[in-house]
Each structure stands twice: as structure tokens, then as C-alpha cells.
Predict the structure of Galactomannan galactosyltransferase.
Amino acid sequence: MAKSSTHFHRSKTSIFLSDGCLFLGGAFSALLIVGVFFSFTTPIPSNIPNLGSVTTKFTAAPAAACLDPPDRTFYDDPEMGYTMEKKVHNWDKKREEWLKHHPSFAAGAKERIMTVTGSQPKPCKNPIGDHLLLRFFKNKVDYCRLHGYDIYYNNALLHPKMFGYWAKYPVVKAAMLAHPEAEWIYWVDSDALFTDMDFKLPLERYKDHNLVVHGWPRLIHEKRSWTGLNAGVFLIRNCQWSLDFMDVWASMGPQTPNYEKWGKTLRSTFKDKFFPESDDQTGLAYLIAIEKDKWADKIYLESEYFFEGYWEEIVTTFENVSKKYDEVEREVRELRRKHAEKVSERYGELREKFVRGGDEVVGRLKRPFITHFTGCQPCSGDHNHMYSADACWNGMLRALNFADNQVLRPHGYMHPDLGDNGVTPIPSDYPPP
Amino acid sequence: MAKSSTHFHRSKTSIFLSDGCLFLGGAFSALLIVGVFFSFTTPIPSNIPNLGSVTTKFTAAPAAACLDPPDRTFYDDPEMGYTMEKKVHNWDKKREEWLKHHPSFAAGAKERIMTVTGSQPKPCKNPIGDHLLLRFFKNKVDYCRLHGYDIYYNNALLHPKMFGYWAKYPVVKAAMLAHPEAEWIYWVDSDALFTDMDFKLPLERYKDHNLVVHGWPRLIHEKRSWTGLNAGVFLIRNCQWSLDFMDVWASMGPQTPNYEKWGKTLRSTFKDKFFPESDDQTGLAYLIAIEKDKWADKIYLESEYFFEGYWEEIVTTFENVSKKYDEVEREVRELRRKHAEKVSERYGELREKFVRGGDEVVGRLKRPFITHFTGCQPCSGDHNHMYSADACWNGMLRALNFADNQVLRPHGYMHPDLGDNGVTPIPSDYPPP
């Protein structure tokens, strides 16, 4: 039992590494108590297992279960590799075995999300580019901390020829293989941020799917629009289907001899695609539309909430949304209570009940889950000329402060003006009546 | 039991929020199994508690235990505030009560670390400043992910008059109050990075102390040197002593009428302090040296490892350190095994056994825990003229890549040249014989 106690009084790492240890430890402790109790009250009948031998087994198992087994696992296969070129087989079985060998990660495995994001290795051309990326990254770290997700920021070009938007696929693949404990890899572009810190991905909706993007079936299958979906934010299941799909998806990329051909094919299929290079977003739309029977049934086109929200229609709504949330809080005393950040998620769930409702239509006044500054290109500064530079950077500032207010609040502060980074202490009973 | 199952199959959040739920769930499940077994094998004697009523109790308790209680907590006190001005009383008791009300955080509470860092609200003056800050932040996020620590990045000026190095104290205080689950707040400057991803803070050493900094008693008490310690990295216990100490420490800051007087006092006490303004580092040295009886016994001056390492003597050693670690790995097959990132900590513990030894003396070839680029000022670019700009930025690049290699490795890649951001896939049996 000493070993279990040590586990239970270690740092949060032991919580990270030893959830199964905790569970087993609880079970073991209970059995021990019952065994001791019974030994004092009832003679142990001969047909009941010897609790002594069970005790030894439970003492040994938790520690052993948390280490890599001495026997070979798939990681020990010298052929095993992380690159795009290395084909991976039987990944579902391998993940399952890994989870069996590491039972501390079994609890919650089916819903475990690993967030992945990143940016280029060298400094941004835009003088404020890296500053914006830093703020966007902080935002993601805040969201992940609130919901207990791991996050990995990549800033290396893993495949020398897979540049730009193609660069994310070697990262996603490496993340899958390095994180068998994660059921989902959640790619979020560097220019997307979480503007609803309460909202959690409704994973139950996606239980029969392996890839989730923001999109509209009609725009893909009928209108054949390259913006019928957005590939800047996606949830991809850590499974063999996804590895196979990414092999096909990435085969349209610049590292292959078919890159130019794919550029032409995608442009001729999606007539509103205005640039010649093969891109991952149109590529995904193509696979859904043209190789429908192979892939489409496992790809969820989510449009019932801002799985990924277009910034231009969102950024002017923040003040009205805040007003709405303040109104709700004035009605519901519980929501105004100060609390530790660690229980924010529970308060968020309560708040969700009061503000729930579709928010695809601007003006519905629910916080947009994710606001994505597509076309603004914060790093290079080469924004789409549909908008001014100011519209982009001011929009980002407002969105970042809008999100930050939700994080600052349990720390006692707020930005009273979304266009200004200044903060003030949160008044005692906020929002005021 | 349904409610418990829901908990056990939720996301990692449930692991975050429900460690006690897991333990209780394990105990409950074991009791249930035993109860069912016994009901089939032995008539339940009348003097044994009715397992049915116990079942109900265990089903209810885990969920209830994870919410804020409906009754008032200290958070509900309208006088409760997070700012420097708001005096906090009985914090130890308040934390203890909070942990009682939220038993899911009790396990591991005594060693739970919350890392806090941050930078200024506006873009850096140095054109590559924010890019460096972004990389330093990623480094911290990597370290925290590996060890299961939460991390909070602050980029708001919480007190309008507490600028520069003084800005951290309102942040640390707010973090303490918002995170009662954390035993330690770990402040790490924006220009410090983790260069040993395996190493864990030896908290057992600090069990009788409330504040840990890198420092040398002789330099403080005898030589009266302002660099007898470094205040850029510190571990501070989340307790009443620390709140009281920070009140005194921060009272030397620019938000008080005594700021200029303190500047003079600190300079006349620590003769090598060359700038006139009252600073937090000399302030801390002063409190240890001059108000020794009040504070010194609770302040640990750590010098047995690079709790915070001076970059200039470290950055030239990275290649030799890497060679040493490669040698060790060639000897110990277990260390060469590929593995999931989630078990890196266990491999790290094994590796530590082989490379353990004091590393204060350059050349001992143990990875420095933290490398701190004091004097380089990456954000403003106003580096100390003792060094060239190139020495600073190249040193940072090498340190960041040295650390990144330890993170990239379980993802299948490495920077072969520390001075270059390029990566290559890790060869199959690395390091090569």
C-alpha cells in the first residue's frame, strides 16, 4: 500500500500518469479495508480467494502498469517512423495495446484531445506578426488549461518541401504517433483563437466520424466552392483511417510530382478557387465531393456552431454579446460568484444552459466558439485586399481582449475597452445591477 | 454507478477535476464487486452494513464533491479582492477549506505547481523580440506539458504603476488567489528557458521553506552583492507567509511613495548595484540580509543546481553536454527506446540516475535546468553592453534548439545543428553507435 500512497501524494504528474493507479489504488484500498474488517468479524471461508495474494498483486500492478513494458512494443520496431513517407499499419491495434500497457491513460481515453498549432521557424515579416502569434498562442494555452487539454506548438518545418498550409500534416502525423493516449488531434491555425472559453467540443456528435471541419455540404457537393469548408481548424481522430486519409490528402502537396497537376485539377473542379497552387482546403473539398464514397461518410461538415468562425462578421458583435451575457448573469446569482479558475468549466456548463442556441446567424448573441482571421495573414502581413490592414489588426486586438476577459476574470481583472490592452480590477459584484 | 461511469469516460477534464472521484470510484467499484460476489456466496450477516445504502452514498458523493458548495466560501466575501492593495487574511485556512470542498484536487495538492510567466502588453521594440518571446513561451509550455503543470501567461499590466520587473507581483498574487489548488507558484521570466526537460524541482528540499531563488548566502550576507541572488526565477509557496512577504517586498516598488528612498537605501546597502531605481532583486537581497530574523529562515538560496543558470557560461557547453548524454544512451539500451511523450518523465528519471551530479561548475556536462538570458533584454533589445547583440541572439537560438531537441525527439525529429532551425528525422537507432 506504501507504493500507492506515494503515488497519491506525488505532484500533478502522478495524476497525469497515474489515473489508473488512482482508480486501482482506490479499489485496492477498499478491498484491504473490507478484508481487514472481515478478518475481524468472520472467519474467511475456504472457497474465497486468499486476500493476501490478491493484495500483493494489487500492490505490484499499479506501478508496473504505468511503465513501458520490458517486451517490445510497436515503438521498438526499427521500421517505425514519424515522417509522411513512413507508412503506418494497424495503428488502431497499436494504440489499443499501448493503452492496455498504460492503464493510467485508459480513463478518459475516448475523449482525450491533443491541441496542435504552430507557425514558421523564422521571425514574421509583419513587424507586429510575432506579437500577434504570441497572443494567439496564449489564448490557446488558456483554453487548453481550462479544459485540461494538452497543447503542442510546432515551429519547425518537418518536411523541407511541405511549406505553407501543407506544413501542418507532418506535424499532425507526428503528434498522432507520439500521443497514442489522445483520441483526437485538434489542429487550430495560428490565426484562429477561442472566443468562447466555456464551450466544449460536442464529441458525442462525432462518434461515428473521424474528421470534423466547419463546412456546408451544399457548397461542396452542389456549388463546388473552395470555401465550402475551412481547413484551418479540424478535429481528426487518432486512428488508421486518419493516417490513410492524410496520406491521400497530402499526396496533393508540393512534395509530390503531382503537385502542379493537382493545382489544375482542383481549380477546374472548384471554379471559384482563384490561385493556381494545389492547396489543402480545396484538396479536402475535392476528396469529399469527388471521392465521396471513399471518405465522405467519415467526415463531419459542422455548421451548427462556430466550429470556425469568419472574423469579419464576428468582430463587430463582441460588445452586444458581452451585454447579453451580463444580462444573463444579472438574472442568475450563481453565475456571478467568484471562484477558482479550476472550477470555471462547471460554471461554464451552467452558463451554457442559459445562453444556448444556434449562433450561425450573426446577432444571435452567443459567444462564437472560434474566431478565425482568414485572409489577414498576421505573420507575413500580406492580408487579402478585401480588407484594410487596420480592420485585421484591430479586429484581432478586440477578439483577443474579448477572449482574455473570460480568462482574466477569475484572476480579478478585465479589459473594460476591447480596443485597449489596459485592465482594471473586476468590481466586487460584477456585472453591476 | 452510472454517474461514476460518466465521470470515468469524460475527457481529461474529468481527470483534472475528478481525481478524488476516480479514487472513490475505484473504491466504490471494488466494494460493489465484493458485495455482489459475497451476495452470491455467503448470506450477508446482519451485523455488516447494508451495502445498498453505502452504494447510494458513494454514487452521490463524487459528483457533489466536485462542485462549489452552495454555502458561502471566501470567494463570496464581497471584500475579497485580487489586487496588491487588498490585504488577504487567513489564506492558509481558506486554501485548506477550498481543498476540502473540492476533494478532486486534494490528491497531489502538496506538490502541485502552477507556472506563471509573461511579457509586456505591446509589441517589442526589438524586431525579433516577440519571435524570441514566442519561442521561450513554447519552451515553457513544453516543459509544463511533460510534467503536468499548469501554465499561465500574463500580458496585461495589472497595476498601472508597477511596471518592469515589479509587474510580476500583482500577477503572482492573482495567480495564488485564483489557484488555491496550487501549492507553489513558479515564476519564470520571459527570457529564461528550460534546458533540461527531464529535471523536476526537488520539492522535498523546500518542505520547510516558502520561497526559493538561485543564490549564495555569502554573497548576500557578507559581500552584499545585488547579484547574490536572481529574482527572475522563483518558487513561492501559495500561503499566508508569501502574501505577507510580497506585501513587504512590493512596498519597495514604484507604486509607493517610498520608491526613491528605497532606491537610495538599496544602493547604499549593495554597493555593486549600479542603477538608481529600487529593483525587486536587490529588494529581496535586502530583506534576506537586513531583515534576516523576519524572513531568511523561510527563504531557500539554492545553488546546488542551475535553478537559474547564467547563460553566458552555459551556451558554449551544449554540444559537449549532448555528447555526454549520447554516450550514456549508448551504454543504456532502455534510454534509446522510442516511446510516447506521455512516458517521457519516467525515461527522464532513469536518465537522471546516470547523469546525476553537481553541475554548478561548467563542464560537469549535466544539462542545465534553466538557462536565463539575464542582461540580454530580448524584448527591448537594450542588452547589457558587456555582450554583443549577436552573442545574445545566437545564444538564445542555440539554447532554444538544445531544449527543443528534447521535445522533438519523441515526435521523431531533431535539430542536427543548434545554430540552425532546420530539422531532420531522428534515425532509427539513435544515438548511432
In short: Chain B touches chain A through 109 residues (CB under 8 Å). Chain B is about 45% helix and 10% strand. Confidence is low (pLDDT under 50) at residues 1-66, 358-363 of chain B.
